[in-house]
Amino acid sequence: MTASEQKKYVLITGASSGIGKASVLILAEKGFKVFAGVRKQSDADKLASENITPVFIDVNDHNSVDKAYNEISEKISQTGLWGLVNNAGIAVAGPLEFLPIEKLRLQMETNVIGQVKVTQAFLPLLRKAKGRILNISSIAGFTAFPFKGAYCASKHAIEAITDSLRRELSPWKIHVCSIEPGIIRTNIWQSSMSLLEESINSMPEKAKQYYYPFYEVLIEKTRKKVEKNAIPPEHAAEVIYKALTTQNPRPRYLVGNDARFLNMIKFLPDIFLDRCICSKTGINEIKCDCEC
After folding, report:
1. pLDDT tens, 95-106?
2. Per the residue annotation, which of 151, 211, 215, 241 is the catalytic one?
3. Could you tell me if residue 290 is inside a domain?
4. Does 292 fall in a domain?
5. Could you say which of 106, 130, 158, 161 has the lowest number of CB atoms within 10 Å?
């Protein structure tokens, strides 16, 4: 990296763990000046270093986003922001038939509305540097899995927002990219499974009667799949670095073999995809004997 590149500033939300943390460390190592968005002081203390400046950002607290913008703007107002990596997110799980609306709202507020708010807030700094925006999507952005409808909906929305924003900002040469990881070894899977089990325990009896047999199979299959196929978050971080440094970044970057495979089969007939996905998640292994 050249001396001029070493002065480039990047903001990464959701930087306390997983892809966000790995990206912060790799970009800082390669010379970027990184603002690491965190919510806890303990995470800020762990990340702070010569090239890493923690900032407190909760994407669901819009006042915190505005405060972070003011803080960062004071430091780099002349230089501008080279990169914004919208990484913060959660994964809500549960059958849509019984999913509490407040949980669906939290999913969309965190993974979609919060990302748009951050983007809106920091675009003035991005314009100054003719920087670029990287939205961390997922294979769930182009595939829908049972019991993950809320999460998949949020990532489908991020794909649409990324495409629209890329076209809207093209006159100013501000690149907007979608990073689409497959299964990454992060705590989002454990958090998702915990939320799923929480959903099971809080469901009405009728919901348990309908869906509990599916959950047992799904949870076990998901755990095995993560253990077998998950790749380190550093793989995604290296792709993020590439998207931030290449002269003409691609609109979307797939990360992992499972992401590439699903990207290939997504255009197959829906009836085939339904059978394939239901088989992989174990739903078609269950015979429903409840009185519907």
Report:
1. 899 998 999 999
2. 151
3. no
4. no
5. 130
